[in-house]
Amino acid sequence: MKACFLVASHPPEPAGGTEMVVVALARELRQRGVEVVIVSGTEAPLAGAEVLTGVHDGVTVHRLPKRPEEQDRAGFVRPRLVARVRERLARERPDVLHAHSLAALGVGFAAVAAELGIPLVMTFHDLWVTCARFFRVPVQGVTCPSGADRGPCAACVAAELRTDPGWVGAAIAERDRLVRAEVAAARRWLAPSARAAAMVREWLPFAGPIDVVPHGLLRPVAAAERALPPQPGERLRVGTFGGLVAEKGVGELLDAVAGLPVELHLSGRIYHEALAARIASARRAGVDVRVRGPYTPAEPHPARDLHLAVFPSKCQETYGLVVDEALAHGVPVVCSDAGALAERRGAGGVEVVPLAALSAALRELVGSPARLAALRAAIPARLPTIAAAAERHLAIYRSLS
After folding, report:
1. Does the predicted TM-score (pTM) go above 0.90?
2. Residue 10: what pLDDT?
3. How far is the C-alpha of 391 from the C-alpha of 57, rounded, in Å?
């Protein structure tokens, strides 16, 4: 069997959760005898070859550079990119086309797959199909609408693009029409959590069946890699890791630990100068902040340095890979109740709190070694893994042949 993954970007370019899942899933499927090829967008501008082909982690990757006029603000139908994808599919002849992300690529690929007789599977890794800003975190002064209403969206996106809301409103309506048609043309639909599936059903809207296939842990964690519990008298190390952006609640975390006798560890790329300035301000105010910066899978995982991991996201999260990573390293977690993170309520080793209650929750845990130890002891010995997700994917692919 041969599968082609369609993705917005792919390592070694900067990788988020979707890209990490795609790499891990491809590796697991290859171990099960599936040949995987990837067609990806790229941040590289078009300057010569229209397709840049290489190999990453043993998988052939075809990257599609874009012209300036093919950026999102110019629309979501990109005939040249669709033609390049058609050429790749006609040459590779996969048994299934799996769209993991249409962001940066646009639409039109469902029609190509149908023309070539290739069944299309679509995974809702994020909320791009319902929100041009991916995670339904509106700009200040705008409230996200309910259901399929897009009333406030024009003002939100226009503020981001610094352009005319009237033009944006018409563009959003056309975007909805195109995206809904693209989604409807797939043969199977997947989401990594029940909440992600529910959000797509309500906000796109979409009435079709969505299979919930949790990502699980993307790589095994050896016993030697697990974090040690805090020792008597040791200063507690609290931290977060991943992409460090305001939408992930980093600012709220800085505020929540102010005045607590802890080290705050921040690991990952800081994407915006405003957040870097806020971190510097917190440090001047007395918060003991340790910034590690970006890290790679080849380096020791930042969870190994923590006693407590905190993920106070403001985004409507669709899964939460970082929660799995912390737990696998033996580190208890406090997270917000945004999106699918709320599904972690009741899970061993995880405390889910509204963002407004973050400061109180951390104060209680930091002041109660026994409470923190109990949270750590509740972490399951085994966690779901990407291997189980790969088995589910393979069964779905086979059902379409």
Report:
1. yes
2. 95
3. 20
